[in-house]
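Outer membrane beta-barrel protein, pasting as requested.
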Amino acid sequence: MTGRLFRALAVVSTLASSAVMAQETEAAATAPASAEKSGLEVSLAVGFQAGAGYVYKNGLRLDGQVGDVKLSDTANGGLVLAADLGYRINDHWFVGAFGQYSKVLVKNNPYSCPDGYDCSTNQIRLGPQVQYHFSPKASFDPWVGLGFGIVLLSSKIEGPLSIPTPAGTLTGHLAIDSKLRGPEYVSLTVGGKWNFGDNFAFGPYLNGTYARYTVRAGTTTVTLPPELGGTSTTSDLGPVDDGPYGLIILGVRGTFTL
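Structure tokens follow.
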């Protein structure tokens, strides 16, 4: 009697378990899949950049010599504002463009910004890029980006100019407006972001670039002192050789998926 009761209970338990499993399987099959993330995506970033390499080689410097001007001679880094704009194709892939404006922290030096001169420099980077996100549905999503583009460097330099005369040295004025540009061959970015819901994320990034200034344009304006008539003469900047360099940029960024 007892054995029959146990066998009956076992049969009932097996049938109940099978029914529950069937219901769970049916529910899983009919449950909607998690939607892939896609849509317009915008990122805004701030950071700091440092560089190594050359602004130009074999050019006439303000110390009166022909030689090289290095990034380490001219700048103490730069403050960065950046933006990415593009389309999130799915959870893992983003395709778009990047843009960056940097306020260069100019360093006084005898080659491009002597003591007593007023110098300002800014840099613009633009180009296409692609990103791959490793864990888009996790709370923290590591990602890597690859791009290339063009770099524009603008500098303004103004200061006193000593002009020797038979009556002694007089002081005129020197103004240089310089524009350098060239290709950015590679821009590699690694980063991570904490996801706050489906539409906003925030986290750090590290960007490394290799580029070259290949074109230089601009003018030099010399203004004579009043004793010599106060006239101004403007001429084109002289030729220089290309300036290869690299940048490292460390910052934080917020990302909005629309």
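Note for the archive: Residues 163 and 170 are 5 Å apart (CA to CA).
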